[in-house]
Structure formats: structure tokens, C-alpha cells
Amino acid sequence: MDVTTTFGLVGGFGMLAFSIGAFGVLDAWHKRNPQRARVDWLIRLYVVGVLVTVAGVTLAGRWWMAAPFALMLLPADRAVRLRAELRQRRVQMQKLKGE
Q: Where do transmembrane segments lie in this chain (predicted)?
């Protein structure tokens, strides 16, 4: 395969993955569905999609275009931190109630 075809396949898969995974990031940011494991999977899919897109752009020889894509990992980091905070609050609330 040539570079253009490789970039198209890898970049296309990556963009599809992070577009779908963005729903999990949005759920975490808006503190929706705190007990659902599906949100964690969507956040992971978002991270994998961003990393695959960065790899595809880098393989195409456009590393300067990959740098802004790498910055898209920052919202995922914040989403994971918010999810952990909500879990910690839930555990503390259960301890307080004596469950």
C-alpha cells in the first residue's frame, strides 16, 4: 500500500473511533451516567481513536498536523478525573449511609 492509502485507512478508523468515543467524554464532563461502565469504554475508545489518528498523520509525514490532534487527549484526561471523583464521592456516600 502507498502512503496515501495507509493514511486514509488509519486516519479514517481513528477519526471514526474518536468521534464515537466523544459521547463518553461528553457524558463524563456533564456528569451523566456515573454508574455505567459504557462511559469508561467510550472514553477509552476516544483515546485510542486520537492515538491512531496521530499515528496515521505521522505515518503520512505530517507530524506538525499530528501535534494538535495529540492535544485532543487533554479532554479525555479531564473526563477520567471527573469519573474518578464521582466514584469516590459515591463510595464515601455509601460509607456514610452505612451500606
A: 6-29, 41-57
